[in-house]
Amino acid sequence: MSFELPSLPYAYDALEPHIDARTMEIHHGKHHAGYTNNLNAAIEKTPMEGQSIGAILSNLDMNNKAVRNNGGGYYNHSLFWEVMSPNGGGAPSAALATAINESFGSFDAFKERFSNAAKTQFGSGWAWLCVHKGGKLDVCATPNQDNPLMPGVGCGGTPILGIDVWEHAYYLNYQNRRPDYVTAFFNVINWNEVAKRFEANK
Ligand code: MN
What we know:
By secondary structure, the chain is mostly helical. Helix content is 47%, strand content 10%. It is built from 8 helices and 3 strands. The longest helix is centred in the first third of the chain and has 23 residues, at 21-43. The protein is globular, with a radius of gyration of 16 Å. The model has no long low-confidence stretch (mean pLDDT 97).
């Protein structure tokens, strides 16, 4: 059994004008496909073959660069497509809204923390909203394809929202203007999906 590139839950152009179709096509069809193929090659005939991606990352030997980079890349992008939607934007409701208020003070305070984490991550990486057992939320950023499921990485807990700040995620449309991309991302966040992940992992 090997990992498969998940299909996008919407068309390549569905997130325009916030994220352009060409970027989505290359990002999903080339970058994510590459991580998926390289992950499969890296775990072939090892004890990791047949394990869930969550189990592989949670128990990862961080010196295993092939699985760290490609397993992270596989997982991170699989989450990324799901937490965006052409019907996204706005703000969360119900229990997730309450948890955000309790953890950060307000939705606006969360938005600032998350945006700053994304804007100030030096070079390639991700910014995350994570939930710890008990429902406490945290924001952090990680380099490359690392994520907080991995031992000793970031804020720990389970990522329920993430933004890819590698240049391949925004450069065609935004060039060096990462802050504009981060602002636009808030127009496509699928808060229903984030709330589902919050409920499942809190
Ligand atoms: Mn990417």
